[in-house]
Amino acid sequence: MTGSLSFATRLSGLLAAMLVVGCGLAASLNYLKFERMLLEQQARVLEILAGDLGDTVQNGLALGVRLAGIPGGQALLERSRAAEPLVAGLSIVDATGIVLFDTDRQNLNAPASPVALDGRIETGPWRYRDGARYGIGVPIINGFGQYEGAVLLGYERGAVDERLGSVLLSMVQATLLALAVALPLGAIGIHLVTRRTRRWFAAMEAAMQPGAAPEPLAATLQGAIGEASADLAAAEHRLEAIAADLPEEVRT
User: Carries keyword Membrane (predicted)?
Assistant: First the structure.
């Protein structure tokens, strides 16, 4: 009986482990999927904001002023940052990468981060990552189609991490609830399904014991074991006889 129960227990443990691993894998894949989706959604929203700023600056260039003399450039960046909490920083750089306007005034007249300009595309926005900060760049083109500079928008993923934390908590709660229901039901189901198998194993074990009771199953099994032993013994004797008849040259 102990062996029968251990068989059912091992089978239940195996299926339970497979279920836990499967739920963990599904939760991990869903987490990564939501992470990519939320990051892409955030980047699209901020890309629109950066594009609007770029269009506003380009309209100022149409008045005939140079990029460094755009009226209200500093105030424009500060208002945009205050209106959008996702933005960590905004700057306008010239064609050589020197910061002309920045929400962090200590960066004025200093070179912009090379990482922010390495992937520069003069025909459209680009994205970059500078350490823990993500960024979006938008080119500024003057009325003659020449590259004048760029708007650089930096942001962090704090808002995304907060939403991911909520999503992860919901997935963990759902997974634990599913496991709490599935594991006991699965164990009961396996116990019921393997009832006949456990009985068969128990009878098999009893029949193979020395001095087993003369039950039909025991007698049949013991008879089959005896026949198999006799066949093996006869085969061994035949092999020995064949080996004895071989010439001495072949045996050596």
Answer: yes
